[in-house]
Amino acid sequence: MKDALNENDPRKAWMGLLAKAPAGRVAALLGAAISRPAFTWLRAPEIGSTMVRARAGATGAPFNLGEMTVTRCALTLETGEVGHGYIQGRRKADAEVAALVDALMQTAMASSLRTAVLDPLKTEMTTVRVARAAKAAATKVDFFTMTRGED
Amino acid sequence: MYVAVKGGERAIENAHAWLAEERRGNTDIAELSIAQIREQLSLAVNRVMAEGSLYDPDLAALAIKQARGDLIEAIFLIRAYRTTLPRFGASEPVDTGAMACNRRISATFKDLPGGQVLGPTFDYTHRLLDFKLAADGDPPKAPTRDAQLGDVPHVTEFLNREGLIEEATHDDTPPPDLTREPLEMPADRALRLQALTRADEGFTLGLAYSTQRGYGRNHAFVGELRIGSVPVEMEIPELGFAIEIGEVTLTECETVNQFTGSKTEPPQFTRGYGLVFGQTERKAISMALVDRALRWEELGEDNVGAPAQDAEFVLYHADNIQATGFLEHIKLPHYVDFQSELELVRKLRREAEAQQLQEAAE
């Protein structure tokens, strides 16, 4: 799904970030920034699964690899914006806050929420990723030649 | 004589109460938490997720605790739970080329771009018991080195400039799903891969080993083995576009296999593929070897009658929950079956004795 830039890309990016955030983290960041607005459920949080697919030989025909747990919900703010939460695992409270942030990002609060919630989240998750990659890099083998057989 | 019987409820209840007590063990010893199992027995958790066919580390850890560490029982619990979940959809095929690799090695190409990254491996350990682990104390911090983030292309892509390695050509045929329709023969490769990725590790290992020892030998090299996390993307109908809904850790093994050519294919290296949830290296390598063995027909190889070439034998016996279900059911009451067998044996015995008497009389 590496399409050219399109209008949905920013939303794709923040929804992906919210889906992968550690448990409770989005709630903590949002709670520190604002008090939660009122909303009504379009779909109350629900736990289910997604069948994860992969490709034979990494690039060939798709096959079903196995399922993962997912929690989803949808809500609407009093001002009408609809927010969706689709997150990994069985975490109804986190799905709710993900949907809330998704809805609020469509309001005038978008830029302040980006600063208060999304940017710190992204930084934290990148830090974790870089730390892991740095440990992996330290286990990279540096070969040196002792004798070269074909000489 | 058929006698309908009831009873045993109290015995069963008491057995379950004792089971709960035994599961807890000596209460002077601190109780295990789910988080401890998830963090410190993570390879057991990974196996339960892979063979339970449900990626959820906390659930797998709970299942291991409930099953007292019996991993097949834990897998059974996960499979049973899985059936209660509504299915929201299927993901886009994951892109393992975009994996954030913890480990990535090749046994065939020393100087692979990106290098040989060992990761947190048991390889090269001395396999001596470490009594330091029996004492308290934190491990030393793992060293770090500057790293580059970004996609890690597969080794075979680099090395296929000459076209000596079979290509896995892009295809978007929707795959069959054995969790929705019963597994039937002939099984195409997509169905075989689904069955193998959730197959019993021991069974898969044994079959893979049999191919190495000569039963359908296909001389596999590990072209590449990588472990790391990949994002999972799913199309959301109410949005009309795909978003990332999470991230899973996978182990991928690509073998390159010697192949002298057949009626339909030129001499080249062919490939076997293993992809399994979690850090599950032994299973992924085994899966790749068995996948390759099962491909004999499409590659125009001879069927030498090896067990690993027999798709029906492999796929119908690889699932440890089906296997243990059928195996263990024979310990449950079979009083009526056995009664009829008993009658039959008594009758045959009477007939045989009567015949002996008759022969003796003649």
How far apart, in Å, are the first and last alpha carbons of chain A?
A: 49 Å
Number of helices of chain B: 12
Average pLDDT metric of chain B: 91
Biggest sheet strand order of chain A reads 1-2-3
**What is the subunit organization of this protein?**
heterodimer
Question: What kind of sheet is the major sheet of chain B?
Answer: 4 strands, antiparallel
Write the topology of this structure.
The complex is a heterodimer of chains A (151) and B (362).
Chain A: H1 9-20, H2 25-33, E1 39-55, E2 62-77, E3 82-88, H3 92-104, H4 110-138
Antiparallel strand pairs in A: 1-2, 2-3
Helix pairs in contact in A: 1-3, 2-3, 2-4
Chain B: H1 9-24, H2 34-40, H3 42-52, E1 54-55, H4 57-66, H5 71-82, E2 87-93, E3 100-105, H6 155-159, H7 189-197, H8 201-212, E4 220-236, E5 241-257, E6 270-277, H9 281-294, H10 311-317, H11 320-329, H12 335-361
Antiparallel strand pairs in B: 3-4, 4-5, 5-6
Helix pairs in contact in B: 2-4, 3-4, 3-5, 4-5, 7-9, 8-9
Structural account:
Chain A contains four helices and three strands, in the order ααβββαα. Chain A is of the alpha+beta class. Chain A has one domain (9-120). In chain A, helix 1 (9-20) packs antiparallel against helix 3 (92-104). Chain A starts with 8 loop residues before the first helix and ends in a 13-residue tail after the last helix. By secondary structure, chain B is of the alpha+beta class. Chain B has two domains: 9-82, no CATH class; 96-119 and 149-169 and 178-324, no CATH class. Chain B has twelve helices and six strands. Chain B has helices at 9-24, 34-40, 42-52, 57-66, 71-82, 155-159, 189-197, 201-212, 281-294, 311-317, 320-329, 335-361, and strands at 54-55, 87-93, 100-105, 220-236, 241-257, 270-277. Chain B has a four-stranded antiparallel beta sheet with strand order 3-4-5-6. Chain B is globular. Chain B starts with 8 loop residues before the first helix and ends with a helix. At the A-B interface, helix 1, strand 1, strand 2, strand 3 and helix 4 of A face strand 1, strand 2, strand 3, helix 7 and strand 4 of B. Strand 2 of chain A pairs parallel with strand 1 of chain B, so a sheet runs across the interface.
